[in-house]
Amino acid sequence: MVESLAINGIDDSPRGRLLSAAAHLFRDKGFDRTTVRDIAAAVGIQSGSIFHHFKSKEDILYAVMEEVIHFNTERLRQAIASQDSARDKLRALLRAELQSIVGDTAEAMAVLVTEWRCLSDDKQRKALALRGIYEQLWLQVLESLHREGAFRADPFIIRRLLTGMTGWVPNWFDRDGSLSLDDLADIMVERVVGES
Amino acid sequence: MVESLAINGIDDSPRGRLLSAAAHLFRDKGFDRTTVRDIAAAVGIQSGSIFHHFKSKEDILYAVMEEVIHFNTERLRQAIASQDSARDKLRALLRAELQSIVGDTAEAMAVLVTEWRCLSDDKQRKALALRGIYEQLWLQVLESLHREGAFRADPFIIRRLLTGMTGWVPNWFDRDGSLSLDDLADIMVERVVGES
Amino acid sequence: MVESLAINGIDDSPRGRLLSAAAHLFRDKGFDRTTVRDIAAAVGIQSGSIFHHFKSKEDILYAVMEEVIHFNTERLRQAIASQDSARDKLRALLRAELQSIVGDTAEAMAVLVTEWRCLSDDKQRKALALRGIYEQLWLQVLESLHREGAFRADPFIIRRLLTGMTGWVPNWFDRDGSLSLDDLADIMVERVVGES
Amino acid sequence: MVESLAINGIDDSPRGRLLSAAAHLFRDKGFDRTTVRDIAAAVGIQSGSIFHHFKSKEDILYAVMEEVIHFNTERLRQAIASQDSARDKLRALLRAELQSIVGDTAEAMAVLVTEWRCLSDDKQRKALALRGIYEQLWLQVLESLHREGAFRADPFIIRRLLTGMTGWVPNWFDRDGSLSLDDLADIMVERVVGES
DNA sequence: AATGAATGAGGTTTCATTCAT
DNA sequence: CATGAATGAAACCTCATTCAT
């Protein structure tokens, strides 16, 4: 089982508290509109002190992204390992990704998507490499489903469509509504392999 | 047929040129990282002169969004009117939305999604009202398909999933690749009504 | 009799209307905070058109001041001419100056005092010369009263004290209150020659 | 005795130095024509550094005014306490106010009068409340003189006339001339209680 | 005379980052 | 490690003035 930490994937060290606060603020106001003072105030230190933990504001952003990719890649791995059939693996992947996106790591995931551009080219490349591992896990499952004839379309494209579907969920999903994440995962599975 | 103008939906007046340049820059670097000087330089005027056309930088953003919503709402209307069956209407809607998103209004559409937060609450409300009309057109078609039994899931949710799918397309679609927008629209239709 | 014109001392030509509007705005918001656009809007023209009437914004300020000094110098002259005794002349001067300051030329007079610093050195000198004539009229009367033994203090100082007294009146005087300008002039006379 | 500090009422902290420089510049060029860069240059820091001490340029203006009102209210209190008869108290008040206006706090006092309008409504109200205390001290003395029959006119009006007289003094008084502030105070007392 | 778009200098303020304490 | 004053670059916006029409 993945250890469940403070904000998840982020521990309770000064560094961890900084990252949690930053993720929250970046998600709320965007990276550019969050000041280093905002972050410092959120954890109760002075703005200058932040630079003992991170070399720059952008480094904080990168750290948030790196942590959340690592944490959710591990979650994906465990989701796959927990199932036998390709179809069950797909549902598990979707369920895990939805959990990432609207559940415990929602803020950091939102930041990952919306503040991507704020990363320097250099760091974008590094984060992209990590993201590649995550995507590999997805493609393996989709390709095996495709080989089984579960759907006709290109697995690569299907993954892109699923990425869009799950990525948009935080913009409309109501955690207190009648639709559960399990239901939603099922509906999404049906978009891949057909209804029933 | 919708008239095809300069950047589309935006004419060749000074104001129109400003809007095109702004959309391009906002898409490229983000609203916050685009300076008023950048925009002015892109159209060959001085930064101060911008404020004869728009009251503030944010007003430019809003104008870009308003224009693109209007233009694409009209495109949706014509897409629906051009088809008879509900299924064909769905394909036409998807085709039209893809055209908006990766075709002639790609930049402004990207801005609409990614820079939404940069709008003041007040302007968000105004833009949301316009966006509501656009969504209504979608829901009518999906609901009639649903009544016909073309799919079981909630039409409202299906629309949300489609929004995610199309919205993510610019992040991976290659206009020069072998997959055409028509092909892609077909693949998406299948996600709703099943693979034939 | 002094001709009574539009705002007083200012006629109904385009130039006159500009000066009235400017005096009003300068008094209300100060010279620096009044924009050339404010003035233009107040008379219903475009900002660029102002420069057909005045070379610069500062020229408008100077014109307001020049007009009001001329107008009120003439009023002083007539006040003196209308009385025989030095004491009656003093009361008439005070009454006239109060009229300038809280009556028909109140706005321009306030501008004369409060926006003096906004004039270039050059124009300050020119305005000072005009103001000198005005002050001469005062000193003549005060000196004759002094020679008559009506008061002991230096007439020059007395004039300074009176200038302060009258100049401050707009900050507290209530035109609709029970104290009339005539009453006030009497009280001021008593400050010079004693209470009865 | 009131302690005599740097510019008076303003100490030698960074904030105090900023305030002194600002008072000097505001008096010299007016609030609107003094730039934040001017103030910074006058104390030898960068313009951005000012905002560690004051939230806005207007805040500096308010601080200057607040300090000078407090300082001079205390001076007034001590002036009254130092005398026994109402007539002597009046002279002491005048002497103290003249000291404020042409002496140690001359610059800040000038700013208080001439830049009043540059304060936001909100801050005007706050400053007015402070000023009210100062004026109360004056009225108490004038009312007791009035009860003693030292003059007939309304004490409230007399205070207004004195305010005008003293307020105008910086515009003509020559500190190196033969007229001392004590002499001037005496002349002003005579304007209230008669020459005798 | 009038217009109104354009200029361009300059204003206040923000903010990531540094560094002496 | 923490502080907080200072930096200095750069951002948005204002505005008197010009000028082609």
UniProtKB/TrEMBL annotation, chains A, B, C, D:
**Which residue numbers delimit the HTH tetR-type domain?**
12-72
Q: Which UniProt keywords apply?
A: Coiled coil, DNA-binding
Query: Gene3D superfamilies attached here?
Result: Tetracycline Repressor, domain 2
List, alphabetically, the InterPro entries matched.
DNA-bd_HTH_TetR-type_CS, Homeodomain-like_sf, HTH-type_TetR-like_transc_reg, HTH_TetR, KstR2_TetR_C, Tet_transcr_reg_TetR-rel_C_sf
What GO annotations for molecular function exist for this entry?
Answer: DNA-binding transcription factor activity; transcription cis-regulatory region binding
Q: Pfam families given for it?
A: TetR_C_24, TetR_N
Residue ranges: DNA binding = 35-54
Coiled-coil region list: none
Please give the PANTHER family that the UniProt record associates with this protein: HTH-TYPE TRANSCRIPTIONAL REGULATOR RUTR, NUCLEOID OCCLUSION FACTOR SLMA
Provide the protein name.
TetR family transcriptional regulator
Source species, please? Alcanivorax hongdengensis A-11-3
